[in-house]
Amino acid sequence: MFFSACSEVRYNGIVLKESACGNDSSGEVIRVNKEEILKRYVCAPCKVAVVGASPKADRPVFRVMNYLSGAGFTLFPVNPGYAGAEILGLPCVAALASLKEGVDVVALFLSEKMQGTIADDLKQLSYKPVVWFQPGAQNEALASSLAEAGYPVVEEDCLMAAHMNKCGV
C-alpha cells in the first residue's frame, strides 16, 4: 500500500496534512482533509484510543472522555500507569498494541516530553489511524514525521470542541 508524502496545510489555525493517506480500523484506505476527518470520525462517532487517559475527574482528558462517551464514541483508555484499572467503566491498557480491536482515531493527551514511544507504538498497528494532538500535546516534529509516514494528523484541536462546534450538537 502506498502512502503519499504530506504537505502542511492550515485551516483556521489548525495544522492539517491534507495529502495524508491512512487506513481506518476496517482497513479501508482513506484520503483525508479536515472536513473529511470531521465528517467521518467526529460527527459520526467512531472508535477512539485515548492515550494519556486518567480516572481523575479534574483532568481535561477525563472531561473529554466523559463527553465523548455520552456522544456515542467508543473509547479505549490507554495509559501504562492505569493499565488493568477501569476509567469510566472501560478497561485501561498499557499501550496501543494491547488494544483488542482497531481504532479510527488515536487522541494524544500527553505532553511532548511524554510522547517518546508514540511513533513506535503506532507502527506496531497494522493500519494507520488518524492521530489527533489535543491542546497541550503539540509536537511539531512528531506530527510531521507521522504525516510523512502516511498517518492523517490533526494538531491543536480538541475532539470534544470539534464535535460540539462542527457537528450541530
Structure report:
The protein is α/β, with parallel strands linked by helices and 169 residues long. The chain has a single domain, classed as Rossmann fold, CATH 3.40.50. 25% of the residues lie in helices and 22% in strands. It is built from five helices and eleven strands, in the order E-E-E-E-H-E-H-E-E-E-E-H-E-H-E-H. The chain has helices spanning 34-42, 60-70, 118-123, 140-148, 159-166; strands at 8-11, 14-17, 21-23, 29-31, 47-51, 74-78, 86-87, 90-91, 105-108, 130-133, 153-154. The strands form four sheets. Strands 6-5-9-10-11 form a five-stranded parallel beta sheet. Strand 10, helix 4 and strand 11 (153-154) form a beta-alpha-beta unit. The longest helix is centred in the middle third of the chain and has 11 residues, at 60-70. It is globular. The chain starts with 7 loop residues before the first strand and ends with a helix. The model is unreliable at 1-21 (pLDDT under 50).
Indicate the topology.
Layout: E1 8-11, E2 14-17, E3 21-23, E4 29-31, H1 34-42, E5 47-51, H2 60-70, E6 74-78, E7 86-87, E8 90-91, E9 105-108, H3 118-123, E10 130-133, H4 140-148, E11 153-154, H5 159-166
Parallel strand pairs: 5-6, 5-9, 9-10, 10-11
Antiparallel strand pairs: 1-2, 3-4, 7-8
Q: What features would you highlight for this structure?
A:
169 residues; alpha/beta; Rossmann fold; 5-stranded parallel β-sheet; two-stranded antiparallel sheet; 5 helices; 11 strands; 25% helix; disordered N terminus
User: Can you write the helix and strand succession as a string?
Assistant: EEEEHEHEEEEHEHEH
CATH topology: Rossmann fold
The CATH class assignment is: Alpha Beta
Which architecture name does CATH use?
3-Layer(aba) Sandwich
**What is the helix content?**
25-40%
The number of distinct helices, counting runs of at least 4 residues, comes to 5
- Give the distance, in angstroms, between the N- and C-terminal Cα atoms: 36 Å
Beta-strand proportion: 15-25%
Q: For the record, what is the CATH homologous superfamily label?
A: NAD(P)-binding Rossmann-like Domain
Number of separate strands: 11
